[in-house]
Amino acid sequence: RVSTAIINEVVNEATMWMAPPTVGSRSGRIYYSMQIGASPPTIVFFVNDPALFTDTYQRYLERKIRDALDLEGTPIKMIWRGKALRDVGRAARKGDSVPSNIRGGIQPATGSMMGLMTGKGDKSEKKSRGKGF
């Protein structure tokens, strides 16, 4: 297994040489990546939107990782994960419906939980804490 720091260093260097693609006004951004499996090596990329990363760019990153980590002849499995929770929170604040591709088991924040996310606490929660808190 390869540490997250080393994989991120390799990915960061690769993105410095060739920036992620831009689709319209949106450009792809890789927040971080990590290895989650060893046989075959499986690397997860946490990105803003997986749809922004073309097949060509994915092959480019795979080649750079393969060269840097000496994985010649070894298949590499790459998983691209977007920011689903952020999208659910935005949809809940706007009152929009949650997109079906990120609905799987994630519930939008409502009620007092939304207050915790925005920093506006619920008064009923403060009363239930008791004196001195």
Please describe the topology of this protein.
Blueprint: H1 4-17, E1 22-23, E2 26-27, E3 30-38, E4 41-47, H2 55-68, E5 77-81, H3 84-94, H4 112-118, H5 123-127
Parallel strand pairs: 4-5
Antiparallel strand pairs: 1-2, 3-4
Helix pairs in contact: 1-2
Quick description:
This protein has 133 residues and is of the alpha+beta class.
Explain how this protein is built:
The protein is α+β, with helices and mostly antiparallel strands. Helix content is 38%, strand content 19%. The chain has 5 helices and 5 strands, in the order H-E-E-E-E-H-E-H-H-H. The strands form 2 sheets. Strands 3-4-5 form a 3-stranded mixed beta sheet. The protein has a two-stranded antiparallel ribbon with strand order 1-2. The longest helix is centred in the first third of the chain and has 14 residues, at 4-17. The chain starts with a helix and ends in a 6-residue tail after the last helix.
